[in-house]
Every structure is written in structure tokens, then in C-alpha cells.
Amino acid sequence: MTLAPIAIVSAMHEELRALLPALGPARVARLGGREFHCGSVHGQAVVLVLSGIGKVAAATTAALLIHEFKARALVFTGVAGGLRRGVKVGDVVVAQQLLQHDMDASPLFPRFEVPLSGRSHFEADARLVDALAGAAQRCLDRADAIIGSDRRLAFGIDSAQLHQGLIVSGDQFVSSAAQSTALRTLLPDALAVEMEGAAVAQVCADFGARFAVIRTISDRADDSAHVDFKRFIEDVASAYTHAIIEDWLLHTPSF
């Protein structure tokens, strides 16, 4: 009996391109306007896919992976803006919980609560979180080998840290100090902000699927958030994603 695949989902083309060489020979399935690359990495059955940006794109992708490809676990990779003090450019955040910061059906439901679900926070799979955190720490410990000291210095990355906790998602690119200050006030526990993770979490909760979200901090979600964003994705985030996912698959037995 063939084991169902692990799904690795990327929001950006650059990250998918970084992961594809590790897949080796692959079968490409086209569905819902997406290309699903099916193969194996370190003996693990894997499907790689570009979700696109935003909650709807991420939710569609997650539903297809679970329903059509029977994925036994989903891991979403990408970048995020740092929110809490001490979460800086070049750090990596593994989500333990996710929340949609733009969900507001008040006064019918409490702010941030997904209507009719009775919940605002969605828990990532603890075993996946622990395994990915271990892989991320091993990779951060050899950051110079992965991204090079010149690139690390160019982006001001000094002693990159691993964080675990709350990531918040919404359909907006948070790129001003006013926006990030407002989020920190409303959600002081939030480590980082992005545009897809909590949507994936909600879909996985509906299907009872295991999932995790891992993000490289590309900016501080303020007025400098657009500076060298594309270059950071290409030079740093994609390299981290490739290294962390390969390390995780190599050190994680089939489950």
C-alpha cells in the first residue's frame, strides 16, 4: 500500500523553485489552476505546490491536497513580517497557533472568532511543530553555510533565532508602522504576520488533517517592509526553506 504524501506548500514561486530540485523525477498533476509536483524526497512521498498569495488561494490549495491527493500532513512555508519585539529579519518562526487577524463578525460573534466554529485560534500539530523546529534550529546553526556570510551581513542578519508561538494571517500586506502597532496592541502574543497560514489551519481543522506553518522573517511589518523584499526571498528565505524541509524529511521517519 502506497503511503499518502506529505504536502509542502509555498506561497511564492521562488520558494517552490528552490524545493523542486530535491524532488527528483516527478509527476505533475494539474488541478484547480495549480501544478502539483508529486515525487519523493529522502524516501518520503511528497507533493509540492504553489498556493498563490492570500487566504482564499491557500484554502483552495489545502482543500485540494487533502481531498484529491490524500495528503497525510501539510506544511506551509514562506515569509512573514515580525511583530513581537525580538522577532527580527532572518529569524524563523514555527507556528504553534494561528489566527485570522482580519476576521471580525462582531457583534454577532467575538472579534477574531471564525463564525459558527466557536474558535479563533487553530492549533498546529505538536509533533510536526517539534520536528520542524528541530530542523530549523539545525539549519540556523549553520546559516553561513546555507546563505553565505556575505548575504547574511547584507541583510543585517546577526545570530538568527528560532521562535515558536502565534502567527496571525490576513488578506493584506502589513507594511506600515501604524498597521503593525495596531496588530501588536490587539494581539500582543503574535510573533509574526502573513497572508495564508490561518486559512490553511482552518481547512485542516475542518478535515482533521495535520498541518504546520513555518516562516522566515523578511521584515518588521513596517514602513521598510517593501525594501529588498524580492531579493530577500531569493537569497535568504528560499535557501532556508530548502535546507529546513530537506533536513526535516531526512530526520523524520514516516508517520
Descriptive notes:
It is a single chain. This protein is α/β, with parallel strands linked by helices and 255 residues long. It has a single domain, classed as Rossmann fold (3-Layer(aba) Sandwich), CATH 3.40.50.1580. It is 37% helix and 27% strand. It is built from eight helices and ten strands. It has helices spanning 13-23, 55-67, 126-140, 143-147, 149-154, 177-186, 197-207, 229-251, and strands at residues 6-10, 27-31, 34-41, 44-50, 73-82, 92-100, 122-123, 162-169, 190-194, 210-219. The protein has a five-stranded mixed β-barrel, surrounded by four helices. A hairpin with a 2-residue loop joins strand 2 (27-31) and strand 3 (34-41). Helix 1 (13-23) packs parallel to helix 8 (229-251), helix 2 (55-67) packs parallel to helix 7 (197-207) and helix 3 packs across helix 8 (229-251). The longest helix has 23 residues, at 229-251. The protein is globular. The protein starts with 5 loop residues before the first strand and ends with a helix. The mean pLDDT is 91.
Helix content: 25-40%
Q: Output mean pLDDT.
A: 91
Give the N-terminus to C-terminus distance in angstroms. Answer: 14 Å
Unreliable sequence segments: none
Work out the count of structural domains: 1
* Rg, Å, rounded: 17 Å
Strand line-up of the largest beta sheet: 5-9-8-6-10
Described by the principal axes of the CA atoms, the overall outline is globular
- Major sheet summary line: 5 strands, mixed, barrel
**CATH topology group:** Rossmann fold
Count of runs of 4 or more consecutive helical residues = 8
CATH homologous superfamily heading: Nucleoside phosphorylase domain
Would you tell me the structural class of the helices and strands? Answer: alpha/beta
What is the class in the CATH system?
Answer: Alpha Beta
